[in-house]
Amino acid sequence: MTTTTVYDSAEQRLPFLTTFKHFWEYRDLIKLLTVKKVTARYKRSVLGVWWTLLNPILTTLIYFVVFEKLFGRDSADEFPYLIYLISGIIVAGFFSEAVIACGSAIVGSRGILQRMQVPPEVFSFAAAIAAAVNFVISVVPLVAAMVLLGVEIPWNTVFLAVIPAAFLLLLVTGLGLIVASAAVFFYDVIDFVKVLTQLISLGSASFFSLSWVSERYQPIIKANPLFHYIDMFRKFFYRGEMPDALNWMMVVGSAVLALGLGAYVFSRSWKNLVVRL
């Protein structure tokens, strides 16, 4: 027997607990919204799901021409540069897309929220999960490139690549809730975040190898949490290696911190957010 959860917009919100409670109680609605977002995205596009496959390929080709043909870089960390590029681009793309989508979801759903009594954060949750679905689809070109270039798939570690992807989902959800809280008051925040996520992605060694950078500047890149998500994904997916302690510390630590901070900020700004909506 299915029970229907009735949302009380005047309920006393507790930092962390209420946000996570809403995720569980409204999981069916989140699933429905996620499916709607994914299908709507591909219905509006002429190419449909093919664009999700083509986008990382086209972006990769641009960097590939610049770095391999113009600068003579044909490998990165002893693997074909093309593989290195695609893996970095799809993870960085997931990060950027999810933070922006999650951050703008509540404002974008203002009309629905004015008519329905549901927790606003469910729209951010659905946006983040929809971005994760697109990420999974974009992994297909990476697998195809590995097969074509003769890169052996490390079956003992490849499925562990879901670990950094899962933690990245937590990270973007937390950051997205912070952005969503601010965007209700200042929508220009979204434009600022678009630039910021681009800078973070560019500084994460998504398209260049850390070995190409002077040792003097390598600590700056390693201080970027996104670098460690990408590095861990690469180690699991095609290098067949286990992440080091710093990888684990940065990935787990940043995900837990971002999610906790996001839930806290959203809960604290809730009353003012309701008035603005």
Condensed summary:
This protein is mainly alpha-helical.
Layout of strands and helices, then pairs:
Layout: H1 17-25, H2 27-44, H3 49-70, E1 75-76, E2 79-80, H4 81-108, H5 110-115, H6 121-148, H7 162-183, H8 188-202, H9 218-222, H10 225-239, H11 245-268, H12 270-276
Antiparallel strand pairs: 1-2
Helix pairs in contact: 2-6, 3-4, 3-6, 4-6, 4-7, 4-8, 4-10, 6-7, 7-10, 7-11, 10-11
Quantity of strands, as a count? 2
Inertia-based shape: globular
Helix run count? 12
Termini distance? 34 Å
Average pLDDT reading: 85
Low-confidence stretches: none
List keywords for this structure.
mainly alpha, globular, 72% helix, two-stranded antiparallel sheet, 12 helices, 277 residues, single chain
Structure description:
The protein has 277 residues and is mainly α. The chain has one domain (17-276). The protein is built from twelve helices and two strands, in the order αααββααααααααα. The chain has helices at 17-25, 27-44, 49-70, 81-108, 110-115, 121-148, 162-183, 188-202, 218-222, 225-239, 245-268, 270-276, and strands at 75-76, 79-80. It has a two-stranded antiparallel ribbon. Helix 10 (225-239) crosses helix 11. The mean pLDDT is 85.
